[in-house]
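Morning!

As promised:
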Amino acid sequence: GIQVEQSPPDLILQEGANSTLRCNFSDSVNNLQWFHQNPWGQLINLFYIPSGTKQNGRLSATTVATERYSLLYISSSQTTDSGVYFCAVEISGGYNKLIFGAGTRLAVHP
Amino acid sequence: NAGVTQTPKFQVLKTGQSMTLQCAQDMNHEYMSWYRQDPGMGLRLIHYSVGAGITDQGEVPNGYNVSRSTTEDFPLRLLSAAPSQTSVYFCASSYPPPDTQYFGPGTRLTVL
């Protein structure tokens, strides 16, 4: 089946720093989503981004479907950005069935 | 809107016991799914439904049953709990693709 790999697995930042998280996938996908899981376990959708670039405040994401990767940019990081960031892909066939990567665990220190 | 709600938040079972994890959504979403999250891993799909009366298996369906009698509810049943089912369970819902998925707060299940 499709493989979804995220890097780096762990990231420690000082507040105010910028970072880039990467998601590679091994086959064509219908769509790709980025999620943030906060320290309390809640999963929040950040981007629905099968291709192209989207921005939402300090966060932006780019997916290059032809090269099978996506990037999540976090600028001017804040302590509230801490948690785990997951990318998830929907494989062909639809039904919004998601295959998740293992995540990038981010800790932002003041 | 309450969004996606799950009950209970925490549950401890003994091996062999049965239970039902409840999931409800008030967004009139057709699609609903159950995922499990094990420590240090991403979520894995257990079962999903594309509408009332329609369910299908995901990646890890063994040991779980589902049914979908209404649009709003999608319960997950463990018939005979095993320690390997210790995990955090998330329910999600959405409109048909393309649409983002909305996740419930999760149920933390421990099987002794």
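The interface with chain A takes residues 31, 33, 35, 40-45, 48, 50, 56, 58-59, 88, 90, 94, 96-103, 105-106 of chain B (CB under 8 Å).

Hope this helps with the figure draft.
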